[in-house]
Write a structure and sequence with these properties.
The complex is a heterodimer. Chain A is an all-beta fold. Chain A contains no helices and eleven strands. Helices cover 0% and strands 51% of the residues of chain A. Chain A starts with a strand and ends with a strand. Chain B is 0% helix and 52% strand. The chains are: A mainly beta, B mainly beta.
Chain lengths: 118, 112
């Protein structure tokens, strides 16, 4: 079974540009999550999408946005890039059977996109 | 209240030793506690997870101990191997939340 796949592996941008990162979840998973892993700051939650809807958002400015497509893949857009946006961006997916544990399922991560801002 | 505190920051053991990594949380609404292992250049891989209705869970050489009253949980790695050298993260979540709140990570080195 294929895992979570992310593209591109590396992305180099300059300040003020826009970046688009892509994620394909594990087959059968409907939820996609985005995290930022910056040096020294650990893993910080960005966004959660399920069934095409944004379900939760972390403490990041509005220039971080995304969407989920009907096939459950997702993209993360970062506008007006700043130097501190340099980080590894990780996507995770999970099934979501509903019920009490909706939004509380094992998350499986891809290997990330390394975004470097020059 | 949303924090998960992880210790130690780094840990060095000899092959065969039993490293123990500890995490503490404040939010009593958390009810899902996974541990992840991350190698350089890779994403975090889910190792083992526990929900608070049990006090211990074992999968292979990895064991989670959970103390609900103390709001603490820990990872034990039995018979550690040099291949276990990696960064380990604890995390916590709650229903309808989606978000995993991560500890700061522990860099484990297992010497041959």
């Amino acid at each position: 079974e294929a895992g979570v796949t992310q593209s591109p592996t590396h992305l180099i941008k300059t300040r003020g540009q826009q970046a688009t990162l892509r994620c394909s979840p594990i087959s059968g998973h409907t939820s996609v999550y985005w995290y930022q892993q910056a040096l020294g700051l650990g893993l910080q939650f960005l966004l959660w999408y399920d069934e095409g809807e944004e379900r939760n958002r972390g403490n990041f400015p509005p220039r971080f946005s995304g969407r989920q497509f009907p096939n459950y893949s997702s993209e993360l857009n970062v506008n007006a890039l700043e130097l501190e946006d340099s980080a590894l961006y990780l996507c995770a997916s999970s099934p979501n059977p509903g019920g009490f544990n909706w939004g509380n399922q094992p998350q499986h991560f891809g290997d990330g996109t390394r975004l470097s801002i020059l | 209240q949303q924090q998960v505190k992880q210790s130690p920051q780094s840990l060095i053991v000899q092959k065969g030793g039993i490293p123990i990594i500890n995490c503490a949380y404040e939010n009593t609404a958390f009810d899902y506690f996974p541990w992840y292992q991350q190698f350089p250049g890779k994403g975090p891989a889910l190792l083992i997870a526990i929900r608070p209705d049990v006090s211990e869970k074992k999968e292979g050489r990895f064991t989670i101990s959970f103390n609900k009253s103390a709001k603490q949980f820990s990872l034990h790695i039995m018979d550690s191997q040099p291949g276990d050298s990696a960064t380990y993260f604890c995390a916590a979540s709650k229903p309808s939340y989606g978000k995993l709140t991560f500890g700061q990570g522990t860099i484990l080195t297992v010497h041959p």
